[in-house]
């Protein structure tokens, strides 16, 4: 823990550490004891400690299943009142575990700590945290154990922050008190890619907030994306690490604190997307916008959007006018595809599409890295690496620090390995 | 339910009913649905409805077992934070069940309803309830679903009211808003005695608060004793009835509202007492008080106390002084007997007792009835009935509306049946 402490004090000026323990890290009484021991060791090393806990693994699902039994679409206010009990239980048990090991501890719920959110039940956003209350609790050597995931709105209704919201609670509390944040979970950090796919994957020592956000599909398994946004906004250094070992994990930090510029930091695979292609759409201003507005009204999120001139553009007619056509390709999650089809069938005539094609047998492979900004030719190298494996690219989209390709599902693992090792991310054999 | 409504309006002037559902009545999702249907039926009959819920059966024990795993003597504040989640879960689920059946409902926790208690964790007492908040919630046809058992102290810490505390929550809420209180449980009322012992036992239609308190050992199975004290203090009519039938249960009401004066209302059996006998104690002022003060310091509750001249009083000596001796008999719970023995061993010399005898093979049989006050000869009849069965009485104590006898354990059931049928409480054969 000493190594950790040093690193953390580099990021935060006060000797205060926020430690968040996820569902598996508090999944049994024994694991709660282990987590309590870590918090106490951190305190003995000279720090004030705030512990944030998730619900015991499986508990939130158990509670939500009860709600589903009663109603197919349960009232969000009551769902939050229900689900928030999971973290309350963990917080009380963690406080008891710390006390049983000779420490001082008190559990604090959203309404007790003044974690004020908006009233968007099940996906509330934190507006304020009573940092003074927290400092008061800590002043006499008490470890404050805060129930994650929950807050209250201005009227005192219980709200929750959405799945994985305890990460966001932890980062927000760390921001409020100017602390660094340790996220203890069941993996030991963020990897260059999924080790189950690519055995040469290795743990990333430091990664920037921006890269972490782009690596969502890798990162979401270890750190809730919204918590990264909050960390970036307030400059909270976040250390993602394993509950079950003392080894350092991955630091998620500001760009200026991340390591020397490697070109590519990680390779992400997203199996959850499906492709929609509007073929031969009229290329007039506003036409494409209409399609996406209709999707947005249905709360369907669109990820990649690619527009290209269509093969169906007709030659100039007798009046000299060219009927300009364009093809529009976009991706939605597989879960949204059926609803997307409904929307598109009603929009097909409006946008003048000749045809709409749907493809589910597709995955998205992405490379992410701050270094791309200063290294030319990264995209070309990506295409070469895929071509060398005879993998056809179905669509491409790029951002400043990310390049994504759609490829057929059967190439998913091959593409990841080719890119991962081709960009030199693997551990030396 | 119409019959119920009529009876309730006799007790309370406003058309507001508090309905409390115990652990077995909300023990499964199906039972929660049934309870919700009852609340909605009551609303449709023209009443405003407040529902108070206990934790789902077994949940409180599950939570407390987790705490015990972490600590043999867990911190009471954290135990309350932990245990109170059981009722929070029930309240949210009940609100969802009411909504699923087309009603309006909101769950309300202790801190949301302003159920302010003292800070005596695990056995807090209610100091105030925000009745206006409750009226506001009810105004638009919402059924307010209040988590029982819990409150908050002035500092916002979560407190609980002790085992069975949801009954007390219900009666206190009913008192605050001037309502009658229905307690739905897994038995259909208070019986003249335990039907498992005495097959002729019958349901009592109306019973006074005073009798209910004296019948603790019968009544505690259906209604928490402290809730009866609160009901008596505020004159809240309480209807104890089954969740699983429409039949009326037992009304617990003020003396003036109870039925015509029967001599004996019920027969109670308490298997939980043990007898301690101080033989030949110096009969000087203050001596006996010392023994009971010592027990009280150890938090040992004493039930019956009987003092009689001792056979060990010595005749007048040469100086004419009589060494007056007395025997003191008292009862403590079997659970407290070991600690009582420790205290008595250290007190034996102080009080000058010749001997201390302990007896665990003993039960207490009591008859209770307001009618005793005006009927002479009830005690004599009790002794006759026991004598007719050759049951020896080991000790007797009486209060205004109760007579208790200690008898050997082997006579327990026989004594109950003899008294129950001897006082004409049984259903006609």
From TrEMBL, chains A, B:
<keyword id="KW-0677">Repeat</keyword>
<feature type="binding site">
    <location>
        <begin position="185"/>
        <end position="186"/>
    </location>
    <ligand>
        <name>ATP</name>
    </ligand>
</feature>
<keyword id="KW-0457">Lysine biosynthesis</keyword>
<keyword id="KW-0028">Amino-acid biosynthesis</keyword>
<feature type="binding site">
    <location>
        <position position="191"/>
    </location>
    <ligand>
        <name>ATP</name>
    </ligand>
</feature>
<dbReference type="GO" id="GO:0009090">
    <property type="term" value="P:homoserine biosynthetic process"/>
</dbReference>
<dbReference type="GO" id="GO:0005829">
    <property type="term" value="C:cytosol"/>
</dbReference>
<dbReference type="InterPro" id="IPR002912">
    <property type="entry name" value="ACT_dom"/>
</dbReference>
<comment type="pathway">
    <text>Amino-acid biosynthesis; L-threonine biosynthesis; L-threonine from L-aspartate: step 1/5.</text>
</comment>
<dbReference type="InterPro" id="IPR001048">
    <property type="entry name" value="Asp/Glu/Uridylate_kinase"/>
</dbReference>
<feature type="domain" description="ACT">
    <location>
        <begin position="276"/>
        <end position="361"/>
    </location>
</feature>
<dbReference type="GO" id="GO:0009088">
    <property type="term" value="P:threonine biosynthetic process"/>
</dbReference>
<dbReference type="InterPro" id="IPR045865">
    <property type="entry name" value="ACT-like_dom_sf"/>
</dbReference>
<feature type="binding site">
    <location>
        <begin position="221"/>
        <end position="222"/>
    </location>
    <ligand>
        <name>ATP</name>
    </ligand>
</feature>
<dbReference type="Pfam" id="PF00696">
    <property type="entry name" value="AA_kinase"/>
</dbReference>
<feature type="binding site">
    <location>
        <begin position="20"/>
        <end position="23"/>
    </location>
    <ligand>
        <name>ATP</name>
    </ligand>
</feature>
<keyword id="KW-0418">Kinase</keyword>
<dbReference type="GO" id="GO:0004072">
    <property type="term" value="F:aspartate kinase activity"/>
</dbReference>
<dbReference type="GO" id="GO:0009089">
    <property type="term" value="P:lysine biosynthetic process via diaminopimelate"/>
</dbReference>
<comment type="pathway">
    <text>Amino-acid biosynthesis; L-methionine biosynthesis via de novo pathway; L-homoserine from L-aspartate: step 1/3.</text>
</comment>
<keyword id="KW-0547">Nucleotide-binding</keyword>
<comment type="similarity">
    <text>Belongs to the aspartokinase family.</text>
</comment>
<feature type="binding site">
    <location>
        <position position="60"/>
    </location>
    <ligand>
        <name>substrate</name>
    </ligand>
</feature>
<dbReference type="InterPro" id="IPR001341">
    <property type="entry name" value="Asp_kinase"/>
</dbReference>
<protein>
    <recommendedName>
        <fullName>Aspartokinase</fullName>
        <ecNumber>2.7.2.4</ecNumber>
    </recommendedName>
</protein>
<dbReference type="Pfam" id="PF22468">
    <property type="entry name" value="ACT_9"/>
</dbReference>
<dbReference type="GO" id="GO:0005524">
    <property type="term" value="F:ATP binding"/>
</dbReference>
<feature type="domain" description="ACT">
    <location>
        <begin position="367"/>
        <end position="429"/>
    </location>
</feature>
<dbReference type="InterPro" id="IPR036393">
    <property type="entry name" value="AceGlu_kinase-like_sf"/>
</dbReference>
<keyword id="KW-0808">Transferase</keyword>
<feature type="binding site">
    <location>
        <position position="87"/>
    </location>
    <ligand>
        <name>substrate</name>
    </ligand>
</feature>
<dbReference type="InterPro" id="IPR041740">
    <property type="entry name" value="AKii-LysC-BS"/>
</dbReference>
<dbReference type="InterPro" id="IPR054352">
    <property type="entry name" value="ACT_Aspartokinase"/>
</dbReference>
<keyword id="KW-0067">ATP-binding</keyword>
<dbReference type="InterPro" id="IPR018042">
    <property type="entry name" value="Aspartate_kinase_CS"/>
</dbReference>
<dbReference type="InterPro" id="IPR005260">
    <property type="entry name" value="Asp_kin_monofn"/>
</dbReference>
